[in-house]
## 1
Amino acid sequence: METVRILGVDPGSRLTGYGCIDVIGNQIRHVGHGTLRLASTSGKATVPLEARLLLLHGGLLDVIKEYRPQIMVVEKVFFAKNAVSALKLGQARGAVVLTGAISSLTIVEYNPTEVKATVVGHGRADKGQVAKMVKLLTGCSDFETYDASDAMALAICHAQNLVSINGAANSISSSFFCGRKKKRKRLSMAESLGLR
C-alpha cells in the first residue's frame, strides 16, 4: 500500500508551525510536528525581517530533509486588518513556498475556513477547537503552539481530500476519515467521530 507523506506549514514572521503525517490507504499516522521560532512573540521584534526569513528558509529546509515529504500544504493568503502584519506574513509565506519549490515538493493551498470545516466541522472554529480535534485525530498529547496544531490541521485537510479523490473513502474503517454517503456529502472529521 502506497504511503504519501504530507507536511503542513503554518507560516509566520515570528513563529512558523509545521506538522507531518503519513497517509497510508485510508488512515493517517502522525510523523512529527514543531515550531520554528524566528523572533520573540512579545513586543517589537528585534531580529530584522530579512534575517527571520533566512532563518525560516534554513529551518524549513532542515525539516524537509528530516521528514522527506512529497507534498507541502500551506495556508492561502487571507484578508488582514493590519497591512504591515499582512505584508510580513506574505513574505514569510513566500519564503515557505519557495523553500518547498526548491525542494521539489508539490505545493497545495487551502484557505483557513476550508481547513476548519474539514477538521472541526465549521469554518469559524477557533484555534483551541482546531488543536483539540487535531489531538484527537493524531493521538498527539500536546502542541507547544497553535502554529504547530494549525500546520497539522493543514496536512490533515489535504489527507482527507486525497482519500476522497482516490476513492478510498468508500472503504474507510478508520475513525480518522468518513466515508461518502449516497448524497455524496463529505462529513467533517468531528462529525465522523460523532463529536458534532
## 2
Amino acid sequence: MDDDDAVISAVSLGKKYGSCWGLKNSTFSARKKELAVLLGPNGAGKTTTSKIFATVLKPSKGNASILGLDTVKDHRLARERISFLPQEHELSKDMTPLESVT
C-alpha cells in the first residue's frame, strides 16, 4: 500500500510503561472506505493504540499517522481531524450525538 493512500497508519508502534511494553511493534494501516478494528483480550494494547492515535499518549517507538499527519510532530493538526471518546466519558443527555462529537 502506498503511504499516500493510508487514512491511518502505524509502523513498529510501541509504548513502554516502566520496564513493561504495553504495546510492541504494532504495524497496520487502513485506507479510505476500509474498516480498521482493534480486537484482543484485556491488556493487548487496544486502548494504548487508541490513545496514541488520539494524541493523548506519545509512543515510545515507531510512529502513527492520521491522514499523513504524524501524531507527535503534527499533533495539533491531527487532533482537528479526529474524534476520540474514551469509554469512561459520560455523555450529556441534553446533547445529540453530533453535538457530543463536535
